[in-house]
TrEMBL record:
Keyword Lipid metabolism: no
Domain of life assignment: Bacteria
Name this protein carries in UniProt: tRNA/rRNA methyltransferase SpoU type domain-containing protein
UniProt lineage: Bacteria, Bacillati, Actinomycetota, Thermoleophilia, Solirubrobacterales
Leader peptide range in chain numbering: none
Keywords: Methyltransferase, Transferase
Gene3D superfamilies: 3.40.1280.10
tRNA/rRNA methyltransferase SpoU type domain segment(s): 101-226
GO molecular function: RNA binding; RNA methyltransferase activity
Key word Methyltransferase present: yes
Length: 238
């Protein structure tokens, strides 16, 4: 692939654009099939690999700063990868094992969405399902996840679906989170401004919260996902 083809590939659902070293590093580490890598500073990329990711190999095409900035204004290295084959939402829900699935209801901020994918991967969630208009594979979400979309399945669903899993609503008004959260749960988190929908709250088997100091209304979405996943790990003694 040539650098001047990257703009068109942004509209191709079969490929993903990876902006920045960390996104590319994780994508490669978790098996990405790269179609092209470009940088204007190969020495810096080589230094980053040596310092942060000696387990990966990259062979970037060297272009001028102006050529790279015309495609991506903020990154010192850019790559395009084939979008990995991953389960659809029903496939994610059907995955075996005790790990929870993270359901993000209509997330608005792509960086936040990506940060949720990142912590879901770090904490061993089975997968991430989103609803709403945002494409969870948008380059800004991939940048937010540091490329960890390649480490676990991430898919968008048009409707709220839970398969045969219990649905747990995470909401600041809920009961304090405890180790009693069932295994294989769908852990649902609401949109940044308005929280969870009435429909989801009505369907939930339980409504749970991370207790906060008096006067604090809520946590940032990705912070809440992180707090819940790692609190559950600690509460269950794993
Ligand atoms: C920024 S908050 C939404 C704030 C919204 N005004 C509300 O009251 O729900 C985004 C999501 O993070 C989760 N969240 C935030 N703080 C939480 C807490 N203390 N306990 C559990 N979940 C929380 C909830 O799922 C919430 O819908």
């Amino acid at each position: 692939m040539r650098l001047d083809e990257v703009a068109r590939s942004r509209r191709d659902p079969g490929v993903v654009v990876l902006e920045g070293f960390h996104a590319i590093k994780h994508a490669v580490r978790f098996g990405a099939d790269l179609l092209g890598v470009w940088t204007a500073d190969p020495a810096e990329v080589a230094a980053l690999i040596a310092r942060l990711a000696p387990d990966i190999a990259l062979d970037p095409t060297v272009v001028s700063e102006a050529e790279l900035a015309a495609v991506v204004p903020r990154a010192q290295v850019l790559a395009v990868a084939r979008r990995p084959r991953q389960p659809d939402p029903d496939g994610i829900l059907a995955l075996p094992g005790p790990a929870p699935v993270i359901l993000l209801e209509e997330p608005r901020h792509l960086g936040n969405l990506g940060a949720c994918v990142r912590v879901a991967a770090a904490a061993g969630a089975a997968g991430v399902i989103t609803t709403g208009v945002q494409d969870p594979w948008h380059p800004d979400a991939l940048r937010g996840s540091a490329g960890l979309h390649f480490a676990l399945p991430v898919a968008r669903s048009r409707v709220i679906r839970t398969g045969d899993r219990p649905l747990i609503a995470l909401d600041p008004t809920g009961e304090p989170l405890s180790a009693a959260v069932p295994e294989r749960a769908v852990l649902a988190f609401g949109t940044e401004r308005d929280g969870l929908s009435d429909e989801l709250l009505a369907r939930a088997d339980a409504r749970l919260a991370l207790p906060m100091s008096p006067g604090v209304s809520s946590l940032n979405l990705a912070t809440a996902v992180s707090g819940v996943l790692f609190a559950l790990t600690a509460l269950r003694g794993r």
